[in-house]
Amino acid sequence: MWRLWPVSSGRARRIPAGVAIVLVVLGVVATAAGLDAPSDGSVVPLGWRAGGVVVDVPGAPGGVGGAGLRSGDLVTGVAGHRLADGLGVVPRPRPGTTLVYDVLREQPTTVAVRVGRPDPYPLLVEGWGDLVFVLSLAGLAVALYLRRPEEPATAPLLVLAAGLLGSTLTVTAGLPVLALATGGAQLWLFHLNAIAAYSISWGGLLAFTIAFTAPRPLPARSRRAMAVGYAAPPAAMALWSALAAPLAPNALGWLGLVHGGQTAVVAAVLVTSTAWGFVAYRRNPDPLMRARMRWLVAGGATATLLSLAGWYLPELLAAARPLPPGALGLSALPFVAGIGVALRRHRLFDIERLANRSLVYASVVAILVAGYAAVVALLVSGLGLSQPVAAALTAAGAALALAPLRALAQSTVNRVMYGDRRDPSAALTRLGTRLQAVLLPADVLPAIVETVARSLRVPHAAIDLVDGSGAGHLATQYGVPVGEVHVEPLRYHGTLIGHLRVSARGSDDPLDPVDLGLIASLAQQVGTAVQAVRLHDDLARSRAEVVASREDERRRLRRDLHDGLGPTLAAIRIKAGLAARDVPPESAARPLLDEISAEAAASLTDVRRLVEALRPPALDELGVVGAIRARAAALSGAMRIEVVGAERLPALPAAVETAAYRIAVEAITNAARHSEATHCTATVAPSDGGVEVTVRDNGRGLDPARTAGVGIRSMRERAAEVGGVWSMRSPPGGGTHIRAFLPTNLGGDHDQADPRR
């Protein structure tokens, strides 16, 4: 997890919180002012012409408002006053008043518009996507700041979320054409949020990117860069507003230029922030920081591409918006998702407890808002109900669905963040299923610790085995501990055989009693599996020791027979023959001497046969590589055989020498008989803790329909006898690849081969 360094004094840390509160309050006041003012049912999209404004009429069937305006109308005047001649010149009308609007459709015309109170429902339908984004970002930012106010990146994230929340609330409430004509608090509060507060929020994004990617502790240059990031977008907008004043023919045209300039500033901030994060990610050498940055940079880059392609660039270049209203906020959700993934997978800011509640309420709110809008639209359009009746029915249904929806969301979030701790049967089933899928005993313990860690959503789990003296040693582990480690004993029929160690989810997020209960339940099943693995290891080790002792004895017997009994019998035969020369043929001793000589010759032949059966003679005469090369020379014909390896290998146990020779020769023999290969390469090379034998050919490869023959079973068994690993496969390019790793430590002090070989 991150170590935290204070970036400034307590006062400096409180400044962003104060700015965020002001931005939210400003947005709420502007929204309340807009919803309280008279409205003509229209909404003016940002980006205006000098002679008039194009309006949208939310919620109007067929795009025609009940007040007489249509979506797409170009309004040039209100109540006899041209908008190009000035803003805020029309007296504020009372609700129920009818005004005449000058509208340009196919041709100039006038429209009678009835003034009323704003209807929030169609505004929510159009802006619900933006609201989901800003509310989820605001909830996450507040949780981060409350949990880690001293972390440098939380303050600018709070400013970003607050500015976007306040300005989005204001823009969602909308600005009708009537507000341009009447002016007043509604008009200037709208632009104070849509321009000033909006610019401040994007300064928060630049500062957040700089702070998040900066090294710890935060250097002075990074603090200066954050200050520049905060100030750059508001300063750019202030400068552009001043430059646009002499360029615009009137106030309406000036506001249009200001909104267009803000679109360009936002696009530049998005590109700059994404590029900054990408470069910092590439340059950061810390693997943990790179893992955290990867998700944020990926989410931010995705959100940037979607918003630029679907909103900002089309608006700048063609004054068009391919995305429907509200989709801009949805396109930015990958940024929030990137923070969420970093929270869950990499302990970003260590706020998983607050994140749990935030995710629950955010998901419930998002589902209720989306469901509310969809159901109301279905009731109004499909059944023909009025909006008040449809809204009332939907609200009643939402109230009934709130409790089960929250329970479902809580269980889902708990499963995502904490795994199966409240469902022990699911965890035990997961463990049993995983163990059934394990093919090799060596993979059982790694599978157990990985399953335990994933079931509990903890960063680390390990198993220690207890030996005969009571001392424990690490057998396997998964992940890295980040908090307090709980140790659970593993027992088999009351005997302690090891320990299961499980790390907490964070330094301030210890394991709950529910977690400890599940760990105890898992330990009962894990103990049986660990004992089975230990018995298998003991059996394999005993088997390897027996094989090693057998081969050592065979080598000693061969040496004794070859160097002791063989020469003795040969000497007896020679002496008997010499003695027979001096004995006359008619002597009774002559037949006896001939019998002695014949029996000595027959015994010598038997000894030679025993010597060759006990152990391949070439191993002692030529060494492993030389013996394989000699056998390969006898097998070569249409297939060219190449044997690669050092002539003098390190001293090997007799069992390993024999197994390596037998496996290599059998593999070469199979290649020569069945593969139809033209080339075969056998390699014998020392490896870490053993020797590795590989045989490759360029033949037709393995036949899946053919069952394993005696040769394949023999190679596998010879490797298993010494505790080794054997595999056979067909690479994509064809041929067959056989590999065997034979460990040299067979668990005992065995006779070693002559180091000269």
Structure, described:
This protein is of the alpha+beta class and 757 residues long. 61% of the residues lie in helices and 12% in strands. It is built from 19 helices and 14 strands. Strands 1, 2, 3, 4 and 5 form a five-stranded antiparallel beta sheet that branches. Helix 2 (120-147) runs antiparallel to helix 3 (154-173). The longest helix is centred in the C-terminal third of the chain and has 69 residues, at 513-581. The chain is elongated and about 160 Å long. The chain starts with 9 loop residues before the first helix and ends in a 14-residue tail after the last strand. The model is unreliable at 1-9, 61-66 and 748-757 (pLDDT under 50).
Produce the secondary structure layout:
Elements: H1 10-36, E1 53-54, E2 74-78, E3 81-82, E4 98-104, E5 108-114, H2 120-147, H3 154-173, H4 177-182, H5 185-213, H6 220-247, H7 251-283, H8 287-318, H9 327-331, H10 333-346, H11 352-382, H12 387-418, H13 424-437, H14 444-456, E6 460-466, E7 472-479, E8 485-492, E9 495-503, H15 513-581, H16 589-614, H17 617-635, E10 640-645, H18 654-674, E11 679-687, E12 690-697, H19 710-721, E13 725-729, E14 736-743
Parallel strand pairs: 10-11
Antiparallel strand pairs: 1-2, 2-3, 2-4, 4-5, 6-7, 6-9, 8-9, 11-12, 12-14, 13-14
Helix pairs in contact: 1-3, 1-5, 2-3, 2-11, 3-5, 5-6, 5-7, 6-7, 7-8, 8-10, 11-12, 13-14, 13-15, 14-15, 15-16, 15-18, 17-18, 18-19
